[in-house]
Task: structure prediction
Amino acid sequence: MKGTEELMKEAILQALRESGGYVSGQELCRQLGVSRTAVWKKIRQLQDEGYVIEAVTNKGYRIVSSPDIISQQEIKSRLETKKAGAFVICLDRIDSTNQYAKKIAEEGAAEGTLVIADEQTAGKGRSGRVWKSPPGSAVYMTLLLRPLLEPARISMVTLVMGMAVAEAVRELTSLEAGIKWPNDVVVGGKKICGILTEMSAELSRVNYIVIGTGINVNMKQFPEELAQTATSVFLETGREYPRAELIACVMKHFEAFYEEFLENGDMSRLRDRYNELLVSRERGVRVLDPKGSWSGTALGIDAFGRLLVRDEYDEIKEVYAGEVSVRGIYGYV
Ligand code: BTN
Result:
């Protein structure tokens, strides 16, 4: 269980962030129900942890900057959501946050639990690929949900998370993040985020799903084999961003979109926004179907998240995620 010491630090950070300016020591004492000395001690501890907190006589305290660390207090003090991230588990190092989330889901962990790691030693990508996960610069997180939905609808939740990441990157940075169907988030034609959803289900009932999201935030470079197709927020903006802020912002957008998704259990209410974010919309794509590849023009998704593609005979085809992959005519996007 979290100690009162940690809760106090969380509360101080939250109060300072919400105010955006100075908060008097007296006000903090009142909000926390503790003495001035206790507040001052906690501020000192936060400063030792790397927070830059200014203290000005007669004005109080003001937060200037936060260290880019993945900790309960950093995440919790920024989350504005009710369900997404209702419980947060922060780990320095783990094999894979998806693996960890599945394990705790089996043990009964609650809906909305968010597992975040600074580093993954066996990060998993889609189609059995490896997701390289070095420490200190990226987001590796997995959200556990227990939706009352048929298993066939779950692939759409992954689209919802893709939208949330694209919106969060747009909100916090100057970048025009978009989506490469079904759920890669891209900037300038390169991938900035990948999502891997795994599910435990019976024939017609979902037991739980884990939505694993990897976001390239402050990476300064990529290994040669990825450099052509991957990028990071830092490489695109020249600025470092606090990962915790991005995580909280993704959860905020996810919660709002997910509520809309649950209204009908499909993308009907989100489809227009999704299609605005879709980078291949009205552009040439190549559909890599194991039964034979073909080319066409991407029109956007339908209410079930399928990509509608007009083929060379002017026929509109529905493309299902998972069965085929879609590439731009001139490259990855
Ligand atoms: C992809 O191939 O595009 C999906 C990549 C998903 C990576 C994330 S990082 C957090 C979570 N834990 C994992 O092992 N994988 C996902």
In short: The first helix runs from residue 4 to 19. Residues 81 and 252 are 6 Å apart (CA to CA). The chain has a mean pLDDT of 94.
